[in-house]
Specification:
This protein is mainly beta. It folds into 2 domains: 8-223, Jelly Rolls (Sandwich), CATH 2.60.120.10; 244-328, Sandwich (Jelly Rolls). The chain is 14% helix and 35% strand. The chain is built from 6 helices and 22 strands. The strands form 5 sheets. Strands 4-1-20-17-22-15-14 form a 7-stranded antiparallel β-sheet, with no helix packed on it. A 6-stranded antiparallel β-sheet has the order 2-3-5-12-7-10, with no helix packed on it. Helix 2 (64-76) packs across helix 3 (78-84). The radius of gyration is 20 Å and the shape is globular.
Length: 330
């Protein structure tokens, strides 16, 4: 009996963070005990040392990158397997901020390769919920440069140079590598990013941990990574369509659409040479692939499912009005 690939769910990798809140448990229903609080749930990861492990079906217990090694193009898509080899190229997280995250920046592919730290890191944020008045930092208010930036940084005034955006549920921000950013308190979001865990911390609000230690800053490393230009389009504009996909972010690293549905939606991926990731950000959806009712998988808010590239057709059946991010690489 040949075992065929099927939609894969994973057990999340949970991260205790100094700024984390409790919404990963209270809103998303992910139990993170024994951690004191939880800032991040990595629901799909091929990051070395932090891989997610399959939770359903005959592949349960296998790590993300083991699957890539075994199933290659069947899982990834042939072109993508040639491009990325045995490392799964996308990391999906839910992040809950009860306090400001450090102001930080990520290197691009070129700089990351030069420094021997793997991939660069471009990412996007989909805001699932935001407290009244919640805001985040993204980019510079006006064009800056190394000299001005360093002078503000050394005088503890770097935040005066940076652009703040008020946020609400449904807002989308693309953060290309090089863009300085920080998430503010009261925000729960889904993050889609390149597989990388390289972060250069610029400023940490003078915080100390319970032992009175400040977290390490990466002032020098960050300098070559930062894009000092101001941009006028920090927010990604998109329109939702009922019972269909609408595009939110397109980049060389990933395409992310949002699917809003209140009735069955049939999707056909036979022309796409890529895996597809569904990330449920509202409601609950059942997936039936290639007509195999007996192998259906249910996806609830706070979960992700990976559709291997060999699966061409899937029916999405919502329990109630639901929203799902649809992620692939073109």
């Amino acid at each position: 009996m040949e075992h065929k690939l099927y939609p894969l769910k994973f057990n999340p990798v949970l991260k205790d963070k100094i700024w984390g809140g409790n919404k990963i448990k209270t809103v998303l229903g992910i139990d993170y005990s024994p951690l004191p609080n939880c800032g991040e749930a990595w629901v799909l990861s091929g990051v070395e040392d932090n891989p997610t492990v399959v939770a359903n079906g005959f592949l349960a217990g296998n790590e993300m990158n083991e699957l890539v090694e075994i199933y290659m193009g069947d899982l990834m898509g042939d072109t993508l397997y040639d491009r990325f080899g045995n490392e799964f190229p996308i990391l999906v997280k839910f992040i809950d901020a009860a306090d400001y995250l450090s102001i930080q920046v990520h290197p691009d592919d070129e700089l990351a390769m030069k420094r021997g730290v793997g991939n660069g890191k471009s990412e996007m944020w989909y805001i699932m919920s935001a407290d009244e008045g919640a805001e985040l930092i993204t980019g510079f208010k006006k064009d800056s440069n190394r000299e001005e930036y360093l002078s503000y940084l050394h005088n503890n005034k770097v935040t005066e140079l940076l652009n703040r955006e008020k946020v609400k549920a449904g807002d989308v921000f693309y953060m290309p590598a090089g863009r300085v950013h920080a998430l503010g308190p009261g925000i729960l979001l889904a993050e889609i990013q390149q597989t990388s865990d390289t972060t250069y911390r610029i400023y940490d609000w003078d915080r100390v941990d319970d032992k009175g230690q400040a977290r390490e800053l990466h002032t020098e490393e960050a300098l070559d990574a930062i894009d000092f230009k101001s941009h006028n389009d920090y927010r990604s504009e998109y329109r939702e369509v009922n019972n269909g996909s609408s595009n939110m972010v397109t980049s060389q690293y990933f395409t992310t659409n949002i699917i809003v549905l209140d009735k069955v939606l049939a999707k056909d991926y036979s022309e796409l040479d890529s895996f597809v990731i569904y990330v449920c950000v509202e409601g609950s959806v059942t997936l039936v692939h290639d007509g195999q009712e007996e192998k259906q998988v249910t996806l609830s808010q706070g979960e992700a499912v990976l559709l291997p590239a060999v699966i061409d057709r899937v029916d999405l059946i919502p329990k109630k009005k639901s929203k799902v991010l649809e992620v692939f690489i073109n």
